[in-house]
Amino acid sequence: MRAVPYTGLLAISFLSPSLAAQPAPAPQAQAQPQRPSQTGLARLKSNIEQITSSIATHWGIYIKCLDTNEEIAINADQQMDTMSVIKVPLMVEAFRQIGEGKFSLADRYILKDSDKRPGTGVIRSFDEGASLTVKDLLTLMIIVSDNTATDAMFSKVGGPQAVNALMQQYGLNSIRATGYADDWFKALAAAGSPVKFHAARQHPFGLSSPRDMGRLLEKIANGQAVSQQASDQMLGIMRGQLYRTRLPKYVSGFQLAHKTGDFVPWIANDVGLLINGQHKIVICVFTDKSDIAEGEPTALIGAAIEDAIGRIGEQVADYYGFK
């Protein structure tokens, strides 16, 4: 028997009625080109921007992983009020002078009542005649942001101009100590209210861009601020920070050497170094809120800003904790 050539019609005749009745499949739509996926660092920045957009305040942020050189910068070059973050450059200048032999960590300071300053700190509660070492002053200036210790150290190093000279030498031109703590508190009292004081913007406690403050922290992390020994001592002091409601709030797996700056809720800053066995990460977060009305309750505003800073710290720690 001669073979019958294959044809499409013949093939269809052998299909079941139900299959034969089905319409031919519609032509597929042409696939749309996919957008390139975000890199991990871009996702981290996007997550941080989502956090900042949820809080109505102005943000300045600089983050740098020192072993990968990855950076995130959000308004990072804008000079902003540091509040007590300026005490970090003051500490660096103190260690520079200690390194030159001008004084030592063991030198004694005798408290006078006229030296006592309001605001944060504990020395103002001590009796006149209390004796503290320079190391005591530097430690309290950082870990509890002691304003009495701050002005004592400004006097010890030769005033804010000595700090500014060192920052200029380091090329950190936006960092500027603007005066003693005493000057700031007198200006605040004269303004009549915190709202009026902040709106006038005449008396910042200190000034810096987030990037320049981050570059100073990078020098400390790399042992280049004064010396390796001095840098290690400064990191040791900063690790003792007692205010932990911002960057450290949700962080695990890292040590955090940091310094806060406070005029909450107008200004709530935190800068520091996240450190574990694999990474050293600079993180500087500055805020500036200017839309608070006279008499408006502020407790919840400040808490929300602090929590957002904590969430930023969490995002950075989680990203590098798994990297």
Index terms:
alpha+beta; Beta-lactamase; five-stranded antiparallel sheet; three-stranded antiparallel sheet; 12 helices
Describe this structure in words.
It is built from 12 helices and 10 strands. It has one domain: Beta-lactamase (3-Layer(aba) Sandwich). The termini are far apart. The relative contact order is 0.16. Helix 4 crosses helix 6. The longest helix has 23 residues. The protein is an alpha+beta fold. The N terminus is likely disordered. A 5-stranded antiparallel sheet has the order 2-1-10-9-8, with helices on both faces. Strands 3-7-6 form a 3-stranded antiparallel sheet. Strands 4-5 form a two-stranded antiparallel ribbon.
* DSSP summary, beta strand count: 10
Order of helices and strands: HHHEEEHEEHHHEHHEHHEEEH
Main sheet properties: 5 strands, antiparallel
How much β-strand is present in the residues?
15-25%
* Count of domains: 1
Average pLDDT reading: 91
CATH architecture: 3-Layer(aba) Sandwich
Q: Under the CATH scheme, which class?
A: Alpha Beta
Compose a concise summary of this entry.
The chain is an alpha+beta fold and 323 residues long. The protein is 41% helix and 16% strand.
Question: How does the SSE layout of this entry go?
Answer:
Elements: H1 8-13, H2 17-20, H3 40-53, E1 58-65, E2 71-74, E3 80-81, H4 87-99, E4 108-110, E5 131-133, H5 134-143, H6 147-157, H7 160-169, E6 176-177, H8 181-191, H9 194-200, E7 206-208, H10 210-221, H11 228-239, E8 255-263, E9 267-275, E10 280-288, H12 299-321
Antiparallel strand pairs: 1-2, 1-10, 3-7, 4-5, 6-7, 8-9, 9-10
Helix pairs in contact: 3-12, 4-6, 4-7, 5-6
